Amino acid sequence: MELVNLGIKSVFIDNMIFAYFLGMCSFLAVSKKVTTAIGLGAAVVFVLGITAPVNWLVQEYILKEGALTWLSADFAGLNLEFLQFIMFIAIIAAIVQLVEMVVEKFSPTLYGALGIFLPLIAVNCAILGGSLFMVQRDYTLAEAGVFGVGSGLGFMFAIVALAAVREKLKYSNVPDGLKGLGITMLITGLMGIAFKSFIGIAL
Amino acid sequence: MSTETVAPVAAKEPAEPLFSKRRKKFVLDPLSDDNPVTVQVLGICSALAVTVKMEPTLIMAVSVVFVIVFSNLIISLLRNLIPGRVRIIVQLGVIATFVTLVSEVLKAYNYEMFKVLGAFVGLIITNCIVMGRLEAFAMGNKPWDSVLDGLGSGFGYAWVILTVAFFRELLGSGSLFNVQIYDASIMPTNSLFIDSVGAFMVLGILIWIQRSKSGYVEH
Fold first, then answer.
1. What pLDDT is recorded for position A177?
2. Model confidence at B15, in pLDDT bands (50, 70, 90)?
3. Angle ∠(A150,A156,A158) on CA atoms, nearest 5
4. Are residues A20 and A131 in contact, defined by beta-carbon separation less than 8 angstroms?
5. CA angle B7, B152, B145 (to 5 degrees)
6. CB contact under 8 A, A189 and B204
7. What DSSP element (H or E) covers B179?
8. Is residue B200 a contact partner of residue A185, using CB atoms and an 8 Å limit?
9. Which residue has the higher pLDDT, B47 or B142?
10. CA B118 – CA B112 distance, rounded (Å)
11. Which residues are within 8 A (CB) of B142 and not within 5 positions of it... i.e. 6 or more apart?
C-alpha cells in the first residue's frame, strides 16, 4: 500500500515537471507533436525506472559512509559521497548507452521510434534529479524503483498533454513575441494549476 | 564534430586585443539578443526551481557562472585531444568535477543554503546551457574566447533568473533577500508565486517582453 501511494504521489502530486521543474528542456523542445512526445516519454519512464534502483545500489554499497564494509572492515570510516555526482552521471550515461544498444539489437522498431531521444536522455535533468531526490529522501530499493517509474510516468503524462495542446495551438493567433516558448510557458503554468488539484490524494 | 561559430582569425595578424570588438560580442550577445534562457530555451529547469527567493537564486547564478566559465576553459584547452565519440562523457566529467567543487564549498561555508538548494546544485551538471556552450563553442574555439563566451552565457542566465526571483519573492512572500518589503495587510501576498505556477507565468511574461523588444519571433 505504501508503495502504491508513493507511485501515485510521484506521478501526480510530486510531478517532475510541475512540482520540481525537472526535464524542462526536453519538455519544451520535444513537445511539438504527440507521437514524438510519447516516444520521449516512454524512453524516460524506461531509463528512470532502471537508473533509480541502480544508483540506489551504488549509493548504498559504494558511496555512503561505511558502505564499503562488505569489502573489508577497514573501510568503515570511508565516505565517498563527494563522488556522488560523477558516479551518478557516469552510470546514467552508461545505462543510456547500454539501453540504446540492447534496444537496437532486440527491437529495431522500438529503436526507430525512440531513435534520437535515447542519447538525449543522458542529459535530461529529470533522470539525474530522480537519483538525487531518491538519496535525499532515504528511499528503500523497492521505493526507489517505484519512484523512478512513477516519476517517469508523470513526466510522460505532462509532455503528452502539452504536445496535444500545442498541436491545437497551431491554429490560433498568438502575438508575435509570445509565439513558441512564451505561450508554452503560460500553458504549462495553467496545466500546473490543474495538477495542483491532485494535492492531498492518498490511498 | 563541433560546429565552429566564429571563423578562425588569420594567423599573420598581430595579437588581437583582449577585449576586441569581436570578443565583446561573445559577452554582450547572450545578455539580450541571444539569451540562453529566453531565446535559446536552455537551462529552464533550474531557472524555475530555485527562484522562489532572491538569496538562493543569487548563489545558484554565481555557481552556474563559475561552472560554465571553467568548464569552457578546460574543454577548450583539451579540444584537440578529445576523441569525437566520447566527447559527451568527457564534457560531463569536467562539468561534474566543477559542480562537485561548488557543492563541497557550499557545504563547508554555507550549509543552510546547501540544504535549501538541495539536489539543484547537482542538477547544474545537466543544465543544458553548460553542455550547450561546451558542445557549440568550447570544442571549436580558443581558451580566452571560450572564457568570455562562458561569462556571457552565464550572465545572460543570471539576470533572467534573478529577475524571475525578484518578482516571485516580492509578490509571493512580500520580501526581498528575506527583508520584508510590505505587510500582508497592505497588499495580500499571492501564494501562487511561491508555487511552480507563478514561476511559469513570470518567465512566460518575461520572455514575451524580452522578445517583443528584441523583435525575435519563433516559428
1. 76
2. low
3. 105
4. no
5. 35
6. yes
7. strand B179-180
8. yes
9. B142
10. 10
11. B76
- What's the confidence (pLDDT) of residue B12? 53
Question: Considering chain B, what percentage of its residues have pLDDT values greater than 90?
Answer: 3
- Give the pLDDT band of residue B2 (cuts 50, 70, 90): very low
| Residues in chain B within 8 Å Cβ distance of A134 | none
Q: What's the distance, CA A36 to chain centroid?
A: 16
Helix-helix angle B54-78:B128-136, to 10 degrees: 20
CB contact under 8 A, A181 and B43: no
Strand partners, B175: B180
Burial class (CB in 10 A: 0-12, 13-18, 19+), A37: buried
Structure-block grid coordinates of residue B133? 556552450
Taking residues B160-176, report their average pLDDT. Answer: 84
Chain A contact for B38 (CB, 8 A cutoff): yes
Q: Does A174 lie at the interface with B, CB-CB under 8 angstroms? A: no
- pLDDT of B116 higher than 50: yes
For residue A50, which amino acid is it? I
Q: Give the rounded percent of residues in chain B with a pLDDT score beyond 70.
A: 89
Instruction: Look up residue A142 and give its three cell numbers.
Output: 523497492
ipTM: 0.75
The SS3 of residue B91 is helix
CB A187 within 8 A of CB A161: no
